[in-house]
Structure formats: structure tokens, C-alpha cells
Design brief:
Shape: flat
Helix content: 55-70%
Strand order of the largest sheet: 1-2-5
Number of strands: 5
Structural class: alpha+beta
Mean pLDDT: 82
Number of domains: 2
Order of helices and strands: HEEEHHHEEH
Distance between the termini: 88 Å
């Protein structure tokens, strides 16, 4: 077993403490991000079932359509088995009810499944670029502020 010097122990202990503090801050950031994402996803749900794009001043967030979550109604499991057979049941339960839905007609799906919307997935967050007009205005103000207080260069001209 390797023995560490006192300086190494102190340095590694301090580094460990710093890393622990950074990871604790990371956990708090992750929790806040998830809270915000859930709030925005609920807002998207209130707007409808389509993919939704939200704009901030600096970022754009795109939320997917909510997936359709299907389950076989427990009281209809026997009927489902008689409609699709044992092989169909095993195939559908092995992966998901998405596979099961392919084995049934629309009428059978409506009778045998319950449907609920699943959680939206955040598809992307993109940093927004200022509009052409906004960028031109910002350049103008930047150039203007550079002129204020600037000293004239060259020799003075006489009138």
C-alpha cells in the first residue's frame, strides 16, 4: 500500500472537499433544471398535443409531442389473449403495448386499452441569435459609445 506524504494528504483532502462541494452544487442545478423542465412541459400540455417551441430572450426550447402510453385493461387481459393468442401476448408484453396495438384493430384497441399521455421529452435547447435588426442596433450603440469620449486623431483642420 502506498503511503502519502503529509502535503499529498492535505492536497488530496482539500481537492476531495472541493469536488464534493462542486458535485453538491451540480445536484442542486440538476434539480432546478428538472423543476423548470416539468413546469414548461406542463405549459406545453396546456397548449395542445403538438411539438411545441418556446422562446426566451436568449434560448429556444423545443418539446416533443407527448407519447401515448397504453396499457391492457386488466379486466380485458383474457379477451386480449383470445384475440391475439399466446404468441401475440408474448410478443406484445416483451417489448411494449405499441407492439400489441399492431396486432389489434382500432376497435379492439379502444375496447382493450386505456390510454394516457406520457411525459414530454425535451428535444433541444438552442441559444438564440439576435435578430438582424437587433444586432444592427447593438452594433450602432456599441460604435456610438466608442465615439463618446474618444479623442480626435490627426491634425486639426482649419476652416
Amino acid at each position: 500500500m502506498a503511503t502519502l506524504s503529509l502535503d499529498q494528504v492535505q492536497s488530496l483532502t482539500d481537492e476531495l472537499g472541493e469536488l464534493q462541494a462542486q458535485l453538491a452544487a451540480y445536484d442542486a442545478l440538476t434539480e432546478r433544471r428538472d423543476t423548470i423542465r416539468r413546469a414548461l412541459a406542463e405549459h406545453c400540455d396546456a397548449l395542445g398535443d403538438n411539438e411545441t417551441t418556446l422562446h426566451g430572450s436568449h434560448y429556444t426550447a423545443v418539446f416533443s409531442k407527448p407519447p401515448l402510453m397504453r396499457e391492457i385493461k386488466p379486466e380485458h387481459l383474457g379477451e386480449y389473449l383470445s384475440v391475439v393468442g399466446v404468441d401475440g401476448l408474448l410478443k406484445s408484453c416483451k417489448v411494449s403495448t405499441t407492439s400489441a396495438a399492431k396486432l389489434l384493430s382500432a376497435i379492439d384497441q379502444e375496447r382493450l386499452f386505456t390510454c394516457a399521455k406520457g411525459a414530454r421529452r425535451l428535444k433541444s435547447v438552442i441559444e438564440r441569435q439576435p435578430s438582424t435588426e437587433q444586432a444592427a442596433l447593438e452594433r450602432f450603440y456599441s460604435e456610438l459609445s466608442g465615439l463618446v469620449g474618444a479623442r480626435p486623431t490627426g491634425r486639426p483642420t482649419s476652416l
